[in-house]
Write a sequence for this structure.
């Protein structure tokens, strides 16, 4: 008999709570972002009926078509790569962009946002060639640039470590992102409270290393067809 959504959600919530307890962190400091990419509106409606309000999408075009078909009152975040030519739509659709990786995208979001738009800088701390993201040494310049803009505000950093079956191997990358955040706060004088890191298989490690947003898809919604 297959698991219900409620059972999967309960198990994820228990994992988050246990990791917070081990790390001596308040549970409310870690937000669960339900990764709803490729999932139909009916699935999101079921998740919303179980109390989830925060959803992450990878593609602007998919989100633009899907969000009007989903329950109102949900908060949408972009976690996938953003091109500057999609910034106008993204600035309107999303409450936060987790994946800013260039000055061009930052400038485009600033010019199209109607209100203050929180963003996270996606940093490639692993150096993996196939991953999007800024080089760590370029992060301070982007934060300084954002500080001079009208609407975008950098609230923290995001990373995606290389996938490995052993979640413990992600720890070095999460530790590196947190250390970079701490250094950037000192260098730029900018508060950077948010760290978006950790997915279904490594959320515990991410929380132990300071994550404030865990991005969970498979363990909530099941494997994609």
């Amino acid at each position: 008999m297959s698991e219900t959504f409620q059972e999967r959600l309960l198990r994820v919530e228990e994992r988050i709570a246990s990791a917070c307890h081990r790390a001596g962190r308040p549970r409310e400091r870690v937000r669960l972002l339900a990764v709803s990419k490729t999932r139909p509106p009916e699935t999101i409606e079921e998740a919303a009926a179980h109390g989830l309000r925060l959803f992450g999408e990878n593609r602007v075009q998919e989100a633009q078509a899907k969000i009007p078909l989903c329950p109102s009152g949900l908060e949408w975040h972009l976690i996938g790569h953003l091109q500057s030519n999609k910034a106008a739509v993204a600035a309107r659709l999303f409450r936060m962009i987790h994946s800013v990786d260039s000055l061009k995208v930052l400038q485009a979001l600033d010019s199209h946002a109607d209100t203050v738009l929180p963003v996270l800088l996606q940093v490639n701390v692993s150096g993996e060639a196939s991953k999007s993201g800024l080089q760590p040494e370029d992060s301070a310049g982007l934060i300084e640039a954002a500080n001079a803009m009208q609407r975008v505000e950098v609230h923290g950093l995001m990373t995606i470590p290389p996938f490995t079956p052993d979640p413990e191997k992600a720890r070095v990358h999460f530790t590196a992102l947190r250390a970079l955040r701490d250094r950037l706060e000192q260098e730029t004088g900018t508060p950077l409270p948010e760290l978006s890191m950790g997915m279904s298989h490594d959320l515990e490690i991410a929380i132990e290393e300071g994550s404030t947003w865990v991005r969970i898809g498979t363990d909530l919604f099941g494997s994609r067809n």
The mean pLDDT is 96. The chain has one domain: 5-221.
